[in-house]
Fold this sequence. Notes:
α4 packs across α6 and α8 crosses α10 (214-234). It contains 15 helices and no strands. Helices cover 77% and strands 0% of the residues. The termini are far apart. The radius of gyration is 23 Å and the shape is globular. It has helices spanning 4-23, 30-62, 65-76, 78-89, 94-111, 115-133, 140-180, 182-198, 203-210, 214-234, 236-250, 256-261, 267-283, 303-318, 326-353. It folds into 2 domains: 9-167, no CATH class; 181-362, no CATH class. It has 366 residues and is mostly helical.
Amino acid sequence: MDTLNEQTEKISFKSKIKKYLDKKNVHFSLKIYFIDAMGKMALGLFASLLIGTIFDTIGDLTSLDFFVKLGSYAQTASGAAMAVAIGYALKCPPLVLFSLVAIGIASNNLGGAGGPLAVFFIAIVAAEGGKLISGTTKIDILVTPLITILIGCSLAMGIAPWIGKGANLIGNAINQATTLQPLLMGILVSVLVGVVLTLPISSAALCASFGIMGLAGGAALAGCCCQMVGFAVQSFRKNKWSGIVAQGLGTSMLQVPNIIKKPIIWLPTILASAISGPIATCLFKLEMNGPAISAGMGTCGLVGPIGVIQGWFNDLDAGIKANITVLDISGLILISLVLPIILTLIFHFICLKLKLYTDDDLKLDL
């Protein structure tokens, strides 16, 4: 058994480590990593890959090479943007934050299709490592970026390809399973991705990381639209038009405090997702062949529908699709807007009739 002095020394050592970690603002927390960092990572994706895709779509529609170039530049910066966004969430010192640019590029490029997931894990490790060394020497301007980039790029070269392959395998399994079992997977993917979108986790980063595409991407879009448009119309009596804009074009995450207080208010949008998802996969065969991140964005800035439209143009260019049909357009409108409104309101009024909750339970402080 340890002597009293040895136990005291252990406690003292642990206390010193804790004080050092606190001083360097390093806190090992699932919330910080999987909610804060992943949420900011999604913003990085939005400000690079997604905006680049929108520019690219404008270029395709107008035949203006200027917009195509803008899109290319923005998309090329996606790895760096994600890593810096993660560093921002982790409150990195400037030298660490700027060093993450190289780490993001390396991780995203070496991670292949699963690049966003590689960036997520590697940028967190490099950022925390950089924070520990930052400000400890008189030549901080040299040591901090040197150590941070050494940690991050070494990890990128060592494990990013494996992370990418793992993410690709999972994504392919989900995509193929949805193709083989569109009814069951349409329900599961729609409900799960929709739930993730409303929770303080990034459904956009999740879809991008695993490459949720094709029919699975269509189901994910259906679930996200049901959550956003659904909560917007479900709470209209209390939140009016500001609620429509904030939730329908912003995020259903605004309802999380109300969901915590009364989880049953989530039932209408979840049930709507469970119905809309298989309609998207089985009836309209709605596919997301634009950027995978769009599948997890729903109607936020109309990014989800724009991603589907971008996919149509991609398929036309590749010769996969002969033309854009009336069924394509009507299916997109129904899945993105009409069904979320109708289905959510039906379940909402049933819940009100059963007195499971009241309209007051959906009030937002807008």
